[in-house]
């Protein structure tokens, strides 16, 4: 399973996004492995798609999620405390809840490959405090 950040989904759903072609190519290239994300990421994606592109793209995105385009695991019981700790640690970037939820998911799955348009933050974040992410969208 490959982790997916908001920027990947937004680029995929917005043909005017500068990363659209890369997101489309990555979606096709990695579909066989499956995608995984979090509820905070879904919230951010639907909000930004509605604001930037329109309700139809937000609905298409949620339809794809409902059809199984991406798994959304239940967060661990200590997710809120861990998110707080991560957001405090990376407050200089700053880290938002969606990004913290992806670090927690990486730790839970033992997987650091991610599709993200956010090169700065995900090149600095570490899962399990030492493991770097590998951004498959923008290497």
Description of the structure:
This protein has 139 residues and is α/β, with parallel strands linked by helices. 54% of the residues lie in helices and 10% in strands. The protein has 7 helices and 6 strands, in the order E-H-H-E-H-H-H-H-E-H-E-E-E. The strands form 2 sheets. It has a 4-stranded parallel sheet with strand order 2-1-3-6, sandwiched between helices. Strands 4-5 form a two-stranded antiparallel ribbon. The protein starts with a strand and ends with a strand.
What's the quick description here?
Helices cover 54% and strands 10% of the residues.
Separation of termini? Answer: 18 Å
Query: SSE order in H/E notation?
Result: EHHEHHHHEHEEE
**How many helices in DSSP terms?**
7
Annotation, overall tally of beta strands? 6
Low-confidence stretches: none
What integer is the average pLDDT? 95
Strand content: 5-15%
Work out the radius of gyration. Answer: 14 Å
Oligomer: single chain
- Shape, per Cα inertia axes: globular
Task: Characterize the biggest β-sheet.
Answer: 4 strands, parallel
The level of helicity is 40-55%
Q: What are the key terms here?
A:
139 residues; alpha/beta; four-stranded parallel sheet; 7 helices; 54% helix
Write the topology of this structure.
Blueprint lengths: L1 E3 L1 H8 L6 H11 L4 E2 L2 H14 L2 H12 L12 H11 L7 H13 L3 E3 L3 H6 L1 E2 L3 E2 L1 E2 L4
Parallel strand pairs: 1-2, 1-3, 3-6
Antiparallel strand pairs: 4-5
Helix pairs in contact: 1-2, 1-3, 3-4, 3-6, 5-6
């Amino acid at each position: 399973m490959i982790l997916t950040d908001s920027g990947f989904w937004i680029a995929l759903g917005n043909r005017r996004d500068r990363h659209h072609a890369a997101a489309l190519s990555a979606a096709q290239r990695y579909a066989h492995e499956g995608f995984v994300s979090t509820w905070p990421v879904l919230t951010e994606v639907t909000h930004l798609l509605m604001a930037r592109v329109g309700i139809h793209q937000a609905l298409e995105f949620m339809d794809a999620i409902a059809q199984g385009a991406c798994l959304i695991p239940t967060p661990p019981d200590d997710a809120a405390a861990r998110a707080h700790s991560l957001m405090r640690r990376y407050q200089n970037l700053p880290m938002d809840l969606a990004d913290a939820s992806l670090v927690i998911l990486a730790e839970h799955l033992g997987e650091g490959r991610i599709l993200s348009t956010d090169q700065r933050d995900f090149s600095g974040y570490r899962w399990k405090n030492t493991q770097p992410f590998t951004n498959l969208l923008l290497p």
